[in-house]
Amino acid sequence: MGESREVMKQNKIYEYALQVYNNEKKLNDLPYKFREPVQDAMGKKQELVNYMKDYTLDKIDSYISNKYVSGFESYAKGSSYTYDTDANAQRYLSDMVTVSKMDDFENHPVYHGKIPFNCYIGDSTQKVVVLHNAAETQQLFNDWLIKFNSIKKECWSLKSMVTNSTSIDELNKILNILLK
Q: Are 68 and 52 in contact (CB under 8 A)?
C-alpha cells in the first residue's frame, strides 16, 4: 500500500509540473508541500516527458474505447441507419452474420430469413427494431468492420505519434487531437 501512495504522490507531482509547464498554474499557487518536488520534476525533462507519454497513452485508450461503442452508420437498407456498437451489439451482429450465411436461413424456424436489429433511422432519436435479410445483415457487418478497422488505424497512428514524441509540446498537440 505504501508504494501505491508513493506512486500516486509522484503522479500528482508530475501532473502539477505539467500544469506549471503549460502555464495552467503558477508554482506559488500549488500546495506548499508540492512546490519543491514540482520544481525538481520540471528539471527532469525526460521523466516528465515519459510521464506525459503514459498519460497520453491512457487518454488514447479511453478515447478509442469511446469510439468503439459510439455506434456506426450503415446504408445496408438503402438509407441511413445508425446501430449501437456496445459489446452486446457487437456480439449479436457477429452471431447474426453467421446465422445469415446458413444454408436454410430463408426457411429457418426462428428467423425466417429476417434478423431483427435495433437501430435509429436517419436523424431519429427513437430506437426501432428493423428486420434485415441475409444480404443486408452481411453488408451491415462489413460496414462495422470498416468502422472497426478505421478506429484501429487511428489508434495505431496516435500511439505511434506518442511513441515518437520527444517533447511535452508534441504530446500536448496529440492531446488536443483527442479533445476535438
A: no
